[in-house]
Design a protein that fits this description.
heterodimer, A: alpha/beta, 8-stranded parallel beta sheet, 11% strand, B: 497 residues, alpha/beta, 6-stranded mixed beta sheet, 38% helix
């Protein structure tokens, strides 16, 4: 994508040639549509397809103050080979860690398909000077992070300084270089679906490769309606510009059943072209074992004790 | 080229994600080979029968009675007897008890009824399960609550029951229309002879078993099946005090002619050609969902379906693009599959009518769009269809198609939207999509339609009155208003009929 033009003032995105309209979201109807898609009954082969895809799309995450190289090593092993007893289970997409853990993570996944994603830009609050944020981004990219998960400045967004939010994303995108940029909106702090839509379009206009719901540090992280709202914004950008932006719901996705619901929603909103880890990620820390358990059940016909799945 | 396309190791994208079949089990429904008429709490052996089928497979389901005028008279006599010797004399609280029982039994047997409704009518199981059955039970609950509070519904007017109500219902929501009719009639203290539609009699016949379970006194509800001849006999019957009809405008007019001068009360809920009006400030993705729900819900077999889409011209292109894209995700097929969005057309006759009107649309010069779609070989099916470039004068913009066919027109100003929306002989419903609250109220004041939905469509609730303007009929069903057609008021008071 060409360098996005800097907004002169206010919020006038070059998304629609005729009217610079952002549009709005009807909360009731959005939630209804999201709920109706959860009623899809996904069985047998279709379920196995979804579960394996969920594994391949997973960003296995640990973002704790107590993270250590040892913890990250365990996570990396799990990411590469999620189920040691079943070689047919694919690796996950990436492991997602704090900047300090990037070197350990990179060393552990070297030579595999698993990517290293690092949160950055004063995660989770984003309340730091831009210079600090950019420095952090350059630091993790230099140390081999394939993907950068940045947070937007919600303080600026909520006070109407959209151009500041936009400029920051543009600068972070530049600092990320070849690394993939995921822009975290932290939807729980945005308050309305209208704001989520506005922030989504803002992030995409500024060059986000992915837009992501949440840091996982707040209650009320990813939900199906908020993810649908973001997918619809992605769809509008695609229709308008041909550009395919990725989506990452994160936080609160713990069960395989939920993962399938997210994938059904993706499938029926953006279509089969988005069913790839290049364009969709599930950010989760405890989802993987439930998916593995369900996959084993589909293959063997019986549920097995959680003791048979490694806790990492 | 996008950022992503420049990445070297892209993972392959699957060609498709086909959902495995997820059929609801048919085993929850046990059908008899043959059904009679339910008269005076007993099954009356029919003198003539016909076969009722599943429109999705054309498979015969059961033999049902074709009621003759004599059989209809027997049902009316049973209703009269029950009215005079019992039902009108019991306490209102006692009537409420039966209605509450029926509501609860419907909830308990919801799955069975939902499967039967989809089997006999062709509608997707997700709709019969999530819409028809919950609403049917809700209507009985709602009117059960009114039974002993009629004086409060009509203060100072001393309401009393009318007597025997003859009720003729359509095939699009068989059990739900049954509950719309029976619940207020019984709550008001009347007895009933109900005639379900020719093509969808089975849920009404299974409902007779609910009445048995609820121990409703014999004769309070009687059910006769058959085609239009049976309905005509019921309308003509001298023992009937009130006719309630839901169906086509042509039949409604014939009934009104027949009843002129007889003193029988009448309510008609007839056809529609509703405008669904999308303003340029609407939440577009949700509006598109509303358009889809407005016209493809129940295969478009909905009298209040949003069959005319009026789009503000400035957003015509994105709306039509979004709509076409959404249509490709509609899953047409087996009504019993839990993932089906659009089921079978109810009957061969209806399918022919839809085809005829769609052909006329193409001939008149409208542009047709149908998503790629594999239809089952047997049964009656029609692909969800959108017509663009439709002029107000085309038949597809004027006549009720009663199928999954949408006509798209444009407007420039709110005044023009109102003018186009009202430019129809019908007036049952309308939809307005805008984020501007004041415009919703401005539009609702001017739209000549019984129901105006704002930022939603096809939403029903027992407490909300429903009915038409102009050739869409008269009288209201639902809410406090829905009691009135089943009540008479003392002579000293103004009669509403």
């Amino acid at each position: 994508m060409a360098q996005a033009p800097v907004l002169p003032r206010g919020f006038e995105l070059p998304l629609e040639p005729r009217l610079p309209r952002v549009g709005s979201v009807d909360a009731v109807a959005l939630e209804e549509r999201a709920a109706s898609l959860t009623k899809r009954s996904i069985k047998k082969d279709a379920k196995v397809f979804a579960l394996e895809l969920a594994v391949r799309m997973m960003d296995l995450t640990t973002l704790e103050g107590q993270d250590t190289p040892g913890k990250v090593a365990a996570l990396a092993s799990k990411a590469i080979r999620p189920d040691p007893s079943d070689a047919g289970i694919p690796s996950v997409a990436a492991i997602c860690v704090y900047p300090n853990l990037v070197p350990s993570a990179v060393a552990r996944v070297e030579g595999t398909s698993v990517k290293v994603a690092s949160v950055a830009t004063a995660f989770p609050s984003g309340q730091s000077p831009i210079e600090t944020k950019l420095e952090e981004v350059r630091w993790v990219v230099e140390r081999g992070a394939d993907e950068v998960d940045m947070v937007i400045d919600r303080g600026a967004f909520l006070s109407g300084r959209y151009a500041k939010v936009y400029d920051e994303i543009v600068q972070v995108k530049e600092a990320s270089g070849d690394a993939h940029l995921k822009v975290i909106l932290e939807v729980a702090e945005l308050g309305t679906y209208d704001n989520v839509r506005r922030a989504s379009l803002l992030a995409m206009a500024a060059g986000a490769d992915f837009i992501k719901t949440s840091t996982g540090k707040l209650p009320g992280a990813a939900t199906l309606p908020v993810t649908l709202c973001m997918l619809e914004a992605i769809r509008d950008v695609y229709e308008e510009t041909g550009r395919m932006v990725g989506m990452k719901p994160a936080g609160g996705i713990r069960q395989a059943k939920q993962a399938v619901q997210y994938l059904v929603q993706l499938h029926e909103t953006l279509g089969v072209e988005w069913l790839t880890p290049d364009l969709y990620r599930l950010g989760a820390s405890s989802l993987l074992n439930d998916v593995l358990m369900q996959l084993r059940k589909e293959k063997t016909g019986a549920y097995q004790s959680p003791d048979y799945f490694t806790v990492d | 080229m996008t950022e992503l396309e420049r990445k070297k190791d892209r993972t392959p994208v699957p060609k498709e994600w086909a959902y495995a079949p997820a059929p609801e089990s048919r085993d929850v429904v046990t059908l008899d080979d043959r059904y009679g008429h339910y008269v005076g709490g007993k099954w009356l052996e029919p003198s003539e029968t016909y076969t009722t089928i599943s429109p999705a497979t054309e498979e015969p389901l059961a033999e049902v009675g074709q009621a003759t005028p004599e059989e209809v008279e027997a049902a009316v006599a049973a209703a009269r007897d029950a009215f005079e010797n019992g039902w009108s004399g019991i306490s209102a609280a006692e009537r409420a008890k039966y209605l509450f029982r029926i509501a609860r039994i419907l909830q308990e047997r919801a799955r069975e009824f939902a499967v039967l409704e989809s089997l006999n009518g062709g509608k997707p199981i997700k709709e019969s399960r999530d819409v028809d059955l919950p609403l049917a039970a809700a209507h009985f609950f709602y009117y059960a609550g009114w039974a002993d509070k009629l004086e409060y519904a009509f203060p100072n007017r001393r309401p009393r029951p009318v007597g025997v109500a003859g009720q003729i219902i359509p095939w699009n929501f068989p059990l739900l229309m049954l509950s719309w009719k029976i619940a207020p009639a019984l709550a008001a203290g009347n007895t009933v002879v109900l005639k379900p539609a020719e093509t969808t009699p089975l849920s009404a016949l299974l409902f007779a078993d609910v009445l048995r379970q609820a121990e409703l006194p014999p004769g309070v509800v009687n059910i006769v099946t058959g085609d239009g001849r049976t309905g005509a006999a019921l309308v003509k019957s001298e023992g009937v005090d009130k006719i309630a009809f839901t169906g086509s405008t042509d039949v409604g007019k014939a009934i009104q002619r027949e009843l002129a001068g007889t003193g029988k009360k009448l309510t008609l809920e007839l056809g529609g050609k509703a405008a669904n009006i999308i303003f340029d400030d609407a939440a577009l993705d949700q509006a598109v969902e509303g358009i889809v729900n407005g016209i493809y819900f129940n295969q478009g077999h909905v009298c209040c379906a949003g069959s005319r889409l009026l789009v503000q011209e400035s957003i015509y292109e994105p709306v039509v693009e979004k709509l076409k894209r959404r249509l490709t995700t509609l899953r047409v097929g087996d009504p019993l599959d839990k993932n089906t969005d659009v089921g079978a057309i109810n009957s061969k006759q209806q399918l022919e009518k839809i085809r005829e009107l769609v052909e006329s649309g193409e001939q008149e010069g409208a542009e047709i769009y149908q998503p790629p779609c594999r239809l089952p070989e047997k049964g009656y099916w029609f692909v969800p269809t959108v017509f663009t470039n439709v002029a107000q004068s085309y038949r597809i913009a004027q006549e009720e198609i009663f199928g999954p066919v949408l006509s798209v027109l444009t407007f420039r100003t709110p005044e023009e939207a109102v003018e186009k929306a009202n430019n129809t002989p019908y007036g049952l419903s309308a939809g307005v999509w805008t984020e501007k609250g004041s415009r919703i109220l401005w539009m609702a004041e001017r739209l000549r339609a019984g129901v105006v939905w704002a930022n939603t469509f096809n939403r029903f609730d027992p407490s909300s009155p429903f009915g038409g303007y102009k050739e869409s009929g008269f009288g209201r069903e639902g809410g406090r208003h829905g009691l009135e057609p089943y009540l008479a008021f003392d002579k000293s008071e103004p009669d509403s009929a």
